[in-house]
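Regression test case RT-17, inverse folding.

Input:
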């Protein structure tokens, strides 16, 4: 049975409802102004912005940020600083925090990330998306031709808010069979400003595509998409073509701002569009 939780009332994902006029304005700023800057300029400005959160004084933001965004005041106790550090030395350290112990589930298929499930549909039902002067189908997100992803596969897009855990894990055990980097823009990711096309940024932003072939010889397609303020998308050391990965093994991390798309051979069993998903819970 699926659950569908409107994200406006989800206590784990608090956002303000954006009026249509404001959404159109934000969309204009994202696509027409920021989106028309040369990609190198977007990346330079994003890297500069990200560097603010690498500075030692930014660690003072962490505790107030947790009080503002989490009902669970012991939230941070589930995590540890990255890279073996003894403490969080900057806000960026909090942003790329690591689980002390990975979530455990008996399910063979899990969600690879945490955030708002802002788009979900069968690949064959998805309409073309216009990107500048081009019409693109969903396979474009994954750097493939439309015939390479079966129409009965399910496409999902999870938007990671700044507060969410920003590491991507394998949704299934299997072998990495393809890795592809697609340079691109870094337009705003927030899905509520695109209304009918919440996945629009995934069609044009910089991204890494990773294919995992599971033990039943089915391909799972992941696309790890960057947005404004992303300093970089870093792949894990073991994220290499030919390597075998276990369910929940880490694949990559983001330095601020992101979304994760997936085309999977099965549909989500417990979650529908506009519900909140977490790393490791059954897919």
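Golden output:
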């Amino acid at each position: 049975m699926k659950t569908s939780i409107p994200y406006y009332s989800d206590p784990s994902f608090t956002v303000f409802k954006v009026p249509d006029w404001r959404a159109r304005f934000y969309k204009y700023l994202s696509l027409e102004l920021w989106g028309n800057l040369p990609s190198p300029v977007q990346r330079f400005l994003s890297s500069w912005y990200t560097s603010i959160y690498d500075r030692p004084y930014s660690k003072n933001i962490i505790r107030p940020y947790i009080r503002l965004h989490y009902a669970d005041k012991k939230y941070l106790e589930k995590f540890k600083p990255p890279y073996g550090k003894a403490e969080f030395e900057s806000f960026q350290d909090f942003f790329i925090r690591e689980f002390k112990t990975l979530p455990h589930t008996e399910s063979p298929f899990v969600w690879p990330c945490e955030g708002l499930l802002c788009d979900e549909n069968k690949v064959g039902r998805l309409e073309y998306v216009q990107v500048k002067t081009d019409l693109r189908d969903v396979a474009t997100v994954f750097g493939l031709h439309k015939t390479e992803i079966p129409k009965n596969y399910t496409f999902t897009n999870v938007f990671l808010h700044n507060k969410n855990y920003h590491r991507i894990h394998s949704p299934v055990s299997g072998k990495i069979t393809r890795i592809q980097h697609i340079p691109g823009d870094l337009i705003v990711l927030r899905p509520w400003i695109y209304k009918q096309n919440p996945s629009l940024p995934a069609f044009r932003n910089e991204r890494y595509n990773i294919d995992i072939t599971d033990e039943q010889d089915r391909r799972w397609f992941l696309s790890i998409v960057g947005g404004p303020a992303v300093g970089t998308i870093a792949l894990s050391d073991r994220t290499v073509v030919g390597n075998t990965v276990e369910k929940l093994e880490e694949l990559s991390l983001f330095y601020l701002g992101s979304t994760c798309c997936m085309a999977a051979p099965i549909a989500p069993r417990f979650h529908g569009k506009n519900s909140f998903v977490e790393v490791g819970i059954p897919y």
